[in-house]
From TrEMBL:
Keyword NADP: yes
Similarity comment: family membership: Belongs to the NnrD/CARKD family.
GO annotation terms (biological process): metabolite repair; nicotinamide nucleotide metabolic process
Binding site for AMP: K199, G200, N201, N202, T203, G227
HAMAP family: NADHX_dehydratase
Name of protein: ADP-dependent (S)-NAD(P)H-hydrate dehydratase
């Protein structure tokens, strides 16, 4: 019987002698021509969520663009296809590079280019670090879900309902929305290396033992790039040593809280993903232990 979790962990205050190595190194593999924004939002959210160090791996010709936009995030140019998406030629480079990190986030804005999907499937089977897989990373996994049986480390999947439909193939988005918990449970089944975050109003976080239904957030968050921020947040929390379920749960809760602060500031209609990003500090400030 699955246990419903209602309590949310607090974030411990930092010890005075902390250094950035204590808070996790996050590698973000994201972006393609036309979708550099997703890559930037995800990596900035990881930093704002406490990661000690964040590096964004991006197709090489887009490197200059993101390097100009990002100040605190480091950038790493990677081999690209003629469509300016990540090339499978970069697989070994990414694998070797990933050894220097604690967590890898893969997916925002990668595109659905066939070669990039092949790269993602290979990385999933070979990376020896916990992974947060989102957006086009999930679309790649949908090509071969059996890859989940070959992963070396824990994977947190963060599909929106349509991505969930692509993963499962047998349900429409509408059916998923009408039976969210039941379908999430079917997907998790006995997979012990997977945590699922089924996004949308009342996001569900589930592993093979327990689940949480989120109540923070609002429809203003149905805006481009909002999910890319969540991916970076969860990766950062994993890097700060929260176990996968708790990292996902806390990420979802604080993402919604930041969305609620953004609603107070700009309202639901005008809210953009950058408003959510701007309100992460407030959400984190109010969630520190003993506060
Ligand atoms: N600035 C940038 O660089 C940005 C880049 N981005 C990147 O773009 C890539 C494509 O991602 P994407 O999610 O936009 O497209 P896609 O997977 O086709 O799904 C969209 C469809 O899913 C559905 N749907 C979603 N939520 C639902 C819900 N709660 N409840 C019900 N249905 C729901 C809905 O379907 P509809 O109802 O319209 O049929 C919707 O139209 C990805 O890599 C991402 O990272 C974006 O993040 C934007 C900012
Ligand atoms: N009505 C809503 N209530 C609460 N949260 C929402 C609502 N609509 C969207 N969200 C949240 O916003 C995010 C949207 O993510 P996603 O669909 O991946 O968008 P994108 O691909 O544009 O980043 C998810 O975390 C989702 O839970």
């Amino acid at each position: 019987m699955m246990q419903q979790i209602n309590s949310i962990l607090k974030i411990p205050p930092r010890k005075p002698d902390s250094h950035k190595g204590d808070f996790g190194r996050v590698l973000v593999i994201a972006g393609s021509y036309g979708m550099t924004g997703a890559a930037c939002l995800c990596s900035e959210a990881a930093l704002r969520s406490g990661a000690g160090l964040v590096t964004l791996g991006i197709p090489e010709s887009l490197h200059g663009i993101v390097a100009t936009k990002l100040t605190c995030v480091m950038t790493h140019p990677l081999p690209e296809t003629h469509l300016k998406t990540l090339s499978d030629m970069g697989r070994q480079d990414i694998l070797d590079f990933s050894q220097r990190f604690d967590v890898v986030a893969i997916g925002p804005g990668l595109s659905q280019c066939v070669e990039t999907k092949r790269l993602v499937l290979w990385l999933l089977q070979n990376i020896e670090r916990p992974i947060v897989l989102d957006a086009d990373g999930i679309n790649a996994l949908a090509e071969d879900t059996a890859t989940l049986d070959k992963i070396k480390q824990h994977v947190i999947l963060t599909p929106h309902p349509q991505e969930m439909a692509r993963l499962l193939k047998v349900y429409t988005t509408k059916e998923i929305q009408s039976k969210r918990k039941e379908i999430a449970e079917k997907f998790i089944n006995s997979r012990d290396k997977v945590t699922l975050v089924l996004k949308g109003n009342n996001t569900i976080v589930m592993n093979n033992e327990k689940y949480y239904v989120n109540t923070t957030g609002n429809p203003g968050m149905a805006t481009a790039g909002s999910g890319d921020i969540l991916t970076g947040m969860i990766a950062a929390l994993l890097g700060q040593n929260f176990p996968p379920f708790e990292a996902a749960q806390l990420g979802v809760y604080l993402h919604g809280t930041a969305g609620d602060y953004a609603k107070q500031a700009v309202g639901e209609i005008s809210m953009t993903a950058t408003d959510i990003l701007d309100n992460l500090p407030k959400a984190f400030l109010n969630h520190i232990q003993n506060k």
